[in-house]
Structures are given as structure tokens and as C-alpha cells.
Amino acid sequence: MAASPATLFDKVPVPTLDRPFGIHLWPIFNKAFEYVVGYPADDFRFQPAVTPMSTLKETSIFIAIYYTVIFGGRELMRNREPFKLRALFLIHNFYLTVISGVLLALFVEQMLPTVVRHGIFHAICDTEGGWTQPLVVLYYLNYLTKYLELLDTCFLFLKKKPLTFLHCYHHGATALLCYTQLLGSTAVSWVVICLNLLVHVVMYWYYFQSARGVRIWWKEWITRLQIIQFVIDLGFVYFASWTYFTSTYWPWLPNVGSCAGEEFAAFSGIAILSSYLFLFISFYFATYKKDGKRPSGRKAVRRMSQAPLPDPIHGTITNANANGYYATGQDVKSGGSKGNGTATRSRRA
Predict the structure, then answer these.
(1) What are the TM regions of this chain, as residue ranges (predicted)?
(2) Is the pTM of this model over 0.90?
(3) For residue 158, is it within any domain?
(4) 3-state DSSP helix/strand/coil % of the chain, to nearest 5
(5) Helix residue spans in 78-164 (DSSP H)
(6) 214 is in which domain, residue-wise?
(7) Could you please report the per-residue DSSP string of 143-174?
(8) Which helix (H) or strand (E) holds 214?
(9) Is residue 330 in some structural domain?
(10) Which of 89, 132, 255, 292 has the fewest CB atoms within 10 Å, counting from its CB?
(11) How many domains is the chain partitioned into structurally?
């Protein structure tokens, strides 16, 4: 006997506040986590000096190795032919798109009910709102992806693309930023991370399609989205820091109560995110709005190829093509120029 339409409809997952995607994602993730590491995500606990990559020493060593590899690799490649690496580049962009999308969906499932039921202040300033055990699992996994994204720069030097200051600074600083917020237990972290993951989904998908030869017109909007991301980030971080410091040290100033997180993490977040906003706005105007006019077509490529870039090894200034140079929340793509003067696209996250 055929099932009635009503019965079929009952079997279709319907989005709810607790299950915004229709199905409950956390149990699926919980089992996948257990399959990989041997215990469910529900049992994970972040313990400084015990959990891998949970000390400043480990983080600093990894970042130092990153800079040694990329600048040393650039020197090794200086008199060699560039590698193509198209297939690996496609795979790299695709899996980062998927990872970013999955983490974003898990964050949405965790935070949407909290924000709706308890309000935004509870979500960004209370440990029961923005620092629950499932969120700590996601914070830690997001932190680990920052080391995976360092491979972006390896593609740059292997393909003999310029290593720009913004690109190199952004990658190293983002790993440090995620570490400080994880160690500092800042409940507002989910806002910054969710926006960054959204940008990553868009950006890595763009570069995946671009590597396939698909031409996409909205490339400039990636940079705009990144700038909007940092503006929103800083609005939340400044608010959380203000209400924490005023309620703790100057209660006579306007505030709405204390906010969860360590002071060193607040200073780190403010400094790094503020530098990102300044650098990306500078990049945007240098690339798209020079002389108050938006360059387009070949003029844009020619103009961007004339932008001076510092050479941290030799202390010289290099001309590099900035076409395709985008950052993300942890993301910058940079272009380069061949020795014969022909502009070529490069890559960075």
C-alpha cells in the first residue's frame, strides 16, 4: 500500500530551532570524531600542556618552522622552474571549502538556539553561552585548521609566486590569534570564527573554481566581505572587552556586566584583528580604488602588477602582480609576475 503524502512529509527532516538543518548534526559528528581519534567528541577536554598544540612553545615553534620553510623554500626555488601542482591545488581548495562549511554548520547548530533563547549578550559573554564543551571541541578543530591552511603558502613558493607581507603576516598571526583565544576561554570567539568560516567557504570555493578555469565575476566581493567581517569582529570584541574592563576596574563607567575570557586574550584579539582591518582596507583601496577610480580588465592587472612588495630576505622591493590576492580571516591570495614580465595568478588563503 502506497504511503500517503502526509506520511511521506513526516519522514522529511523539518528545520527547527534546535535542528536548523533538519537533521541533528552533532551525533553524526560525534561518531565521526570517535572513528578518527578513538573517543567521542563529547569526551574531549582542552587541557593546556596536555592537548597537542596547546602551549605557547609548541605554537611558536610551529610558526617559526612555517616562516623558515616558506622563505627557505623561496630561496631554493629561485633558480628552478615553478611547479604546476594544479591537481593538488584543486584538492587543497576543495577540502578546505568542505571543512569550513562543516564547521560553520556545526557552529550554527550550537549557537542559534542559544542566541534565540538567551540573547546575544549571554551568547558572547557567558561561559554557558559561548564556552560550552561542544563549542570548545569546534574551537580546537578550527585552531588546528589554521596549520593546515599554512600549506597555502607552500603552493606560493613552489609555484614561484611572491610571498607578500600581508599574506605571510596574516597566516602566522591567525594561528597565534586562535591559540590565544582558545587558551583565554573567550566566549565571544564563536562570532569571529563563524564569520571567518563563512568567508573561507566563499573564498576557497572561488579559488577552487578559478583553478578549474571557471571565470567568476564577484572576485572583488571576497575582499569586501573580508573587510565587513573584520568590522563586525571588532564591534563584538571591543564591546566584550569594554564591558569586561569597565565592570572589573572602572564600574562607574557605563557597562552591562562582566564578560568571560582572559585579559591577555582580549588584548591579543584587539591588536591582531585591528591590524587585519587596517591592512585589508589598505589593500582594497590600493587594488580597486586607486585615484578614486575602480580599475578593470587589463588596466587593473597592469596597475596591480606595479605594486611594490618587500623582500624580507634581501631587504629589497619586488614588483608583484596582486591579481587574485585575497585574505581571509585566516586569508590572502597573492599574485606574481614571471621573469618575462607576464602577469600570472597566484594563491593564498
Answers:
(1) 59-77, 89-108, 187-207, 227-245, 265-286
(2) no
(3) yes
(4) 65, 5, 30
(5) 86-118, 120-125, 127-130, 133-148, 151-158
(6) 83-280
(7) HHHHHHTTHHHHHHHHTT----HHHHHHHHHH
(8) none
(9) no
(10) 292
(11) 1
